[in-house]
Amino acid sequence: MRALIAVVWALAFSLAAQAQDASPLSEYLWLKRPLVVFADTPNDPRYIRQMELLEKNPVDREELEERDVVILSDSDPVANTALRQALHPRGFMLVIYDKDGSILFRKPVPWSVREISRAIDKTPMRQDEISEKLGK
């Protein structure tokens, strides 16, 4: 009976690992925090504003790099990417993932780099990174 339980547990963990590897963001797992900006068209004013907020200021880009954020954008719903299939965005949507692959937040409006940075800094994983960096 114990052998059967061990086999069932091993199978369950192996299936979970395979599902995690099949994720469209698996290449960033434990390395980066993907920030995904969705829109139905690159002409969406919210999409344009979000991209401006993310790209305009070199200091802001440094803040995002310090937090291991990688920016991905998808403004073509016809392409029906794996991310679109997973998240089902309607119009504009901002999504940020943590390094473990969990979704930190979804927002229907553009956010400044400051707002994004503060939201990331509140997470336990980021708090651990800050503590390690400070040598605590």
Number of helices: 6
Quickly give the structural class.
alpha+beta
Residue windows where pLDDT falls under 50 for at least 5 positions: 3-21
The CATH topology, please?
Glutaredoxin
| Helix content, binned percent | 40-55%
In CATH, what is the class?
A: Alpha Beta
How far is the first residue's CA from the last residue's CA?
46 Å
Number of domains: 1
CATH architecture: 3-Layer(aba) Sandwich
Tell me the strand percentage band. Answer: 15-25%
The CATH superfamily title: Glutaredoxin
- Please outline the major beta sheet: 4 strands, mixed
Rg: 18 Å
| Molecular shape | globular
Total DSSP E strands: 4
Spatially, the strands of the biggest sheet line up as 2-1-3-4
- Mean pLDDT, to the nearest integer, reads 87
Order of SSEs: HEHHEHEEHH
Feature tags:
alpha+beta; 49% helix; 136 residues; 6 helices
Description:
The protein is an alpha+beta fold. Helices cover 49% and strands 16% of the residues. It contains six helices and four strands, in the order αβααβαββαα. It has helices spanning 2-21, 45-55, 58-66, 82-87, 113-121, 124-134, and strands spanning 33-38, 69-74, 93-97, 103-107. A four-stranded mixed sheet has the order 2-1-3-4. It starts with a helix and ends with a helix. The model is unreliable at 3-21 (pLDDT under 50).
Secondary structure: elements and pairs:
Layout: H1 2-21, E1 33-38, H2 45-55, H3 58-66, E2 69-74, H4 82-87, E3 93-97, E4 103-107, H5 113-121, H6 124-134
Parallel strand pairs: 1-2
Antiparallel strand pairs: 1-3, 3-4
Helix pairs in contact: 3-5
